[in-house]
Each structure stands twice: as structure tokens, then as C-alpha cells.
Design brief:
single chain; alpha+beta; Alpha-Beta Plaits; 2 domains; 8-stranded antiparallel β-barrel; globular
Length: 206
């Protein structure tokens, strides 16, 4: 599976309303589900992300070709220029591990990013898969590990779904109480570039 994300930093409440309307229009025009997420309690407050999952890149290409030729989409996109700060960035990632469990109606998603170290990339990928498995086993939360195809070279990320902030808190408490988990994290030293990671919490915008 492929994850396509389009990120923008918005100004004010009208910007969020525009982002919602853009999500709805794109979903209708492309005939494919797009979701809207916003960073919360995290760096980059005001950043939103339109996301969609795809079985293959040919399907993504066909859907976006439909959008490019749609007058309503072009008009709506142009109208967003007054709400967007510093442009828009796209990101494409592919799942390395299968999603562990059903995310259901997840309200929040925790995202942790990192960059694989040159010379230890394979060990890093295997460690990433194992981290995902351990997080799911300890917390019972649906998690997935992805490798980025665009953006910083060697980029990877973990996504974990939560029903609420209380669920997020409970899951982190379970990890903190498991010494074996942190022993394993320590054992991955050298797999990822130090200082390359970032932890972000996203909230779904209905």
C-alpha cells in the first residue's frame, strides 16, 4: 500500500474551512477517499495533511489526472492561496509492515519519523518492523511502518492509531512500563541517523 500526503500550513479558521471543502471536492471528483488531519500538541501547529491510501501508483496517477483537468478543483485550489503559508509539500510512502489491527474510527494518529543510516539500512528496516510489532503487542494499538519514497533519502515513519487522547496516554504508559521495549530500542543504535527523528500527533478533521 502507498500513502500519499499533501501538507500545508494554514492561517486562521477560514483556512481550515477551505481545507475541509478541498477534501470533500477531491474525494467526490477522484472517486477515492481522502482524509484531512491537523497537527495538534506538536511542532508546526497549523499544519494540515490531506492523506489517501492506494493499492498501486497507477491508480493514484489516474485519480490525479482527473483532478488536474477539473475546473472546480483548479478554482478551489487557486482560492486557497490566501490561506497557505510557505507553499504545499507532497510526500509518498509505502508500507513495509502490514497494519496491525483495525484502526476503526481513529481520532488521533501518532507519527514518529526517522532516517536510516547509510551502512545499516537493512538492519534499520528490520528494526523498524520489530518496533512496530512490539508496540502493537504491548499496547494493543494498530500500528504500521512505512518507508518514504520522496522527501529526505532513507526516511521512514511509524504511525499508530488512537481513539482518544486518553488512549494515547494509556498506550504511552504501557510502553514506559515495559523495560524490554526500551532495551530493544537501545539495541537499534546505529540503525537511524541521530537527531533525525520527530514525534508528531495528528487529529482527524471531520
Amino acid at each position: 500500500m502507498y500513502l500519499m500526503s499533501r501538507n500545508a500550513r494554514l492561517t486562521g479558521g477560514k483556512g481550515l474551512e477551505w481545507a475541509r471543502s478541498m477534501r470533500d471536492l477531491v474525494t467526490e471528483t477522484a472517486g477515492h477517499e481522502f482524509q484531512l488531519w491537523a497537527r495538534t500538541l506538536s511542532p508546526g501547529f497549523g499544519t494540515v495533511s490531506w492523506t489517501s491510501w492506494w493499492e498501486d501508483l497507477s491508480s493514484l496517477e489516474s485519480a490525479f489526472a482527473t483532478l488536474v483537468g477539473d475546473a472546480k478543483y483548479i478554482e478551489k485550489a487557486m482560492a486557497g492561496r490566501e490561506f497557505v503559508v510557505d507553499g504545499i509539500d507532497d510526500s509518498l510512502a509505502q508500507t513495509v509492515s502490514e497494519l496491525s489491527g483495525e484502526p476503526g474510527n481513529a481520532r488521533y494518529v501518532g507519527a514518529i519519523s526517522a532516517t536510516l543510516s547509510v551502512g545499516d539500512a537493512m538492519r534499520g528496516v528490520m528494526a523498524g518492523i520489530e518496533i512496530t510489532s512490539r508496540v502493537s503487542s504491548i499496547t494493543g494499538t494498530p500500528s504500521v511502518f512505512v518507508q518514504r519514497h520522496t522527501g529526505p533519502y532513507g526516511g521512514v515513519a511509524w504511525f499508530t492509531a488512537f481513539d482518544s487522547l486518553a488512549h494515547f496516554e494509556e498506550s504511552n504508559a504501557k510502553l514506559a512500563a515495559d523495560p524490554d521495549f526500551f532495551s530493544f530500542i537501545d539495541s537499534t543504535k546505529g540503525c537511524f541517523v541521530e537527531g533525525s527523528g520527530e514525534s508528531v500527533l495528528w487529529v482527524k478533521i471531520d
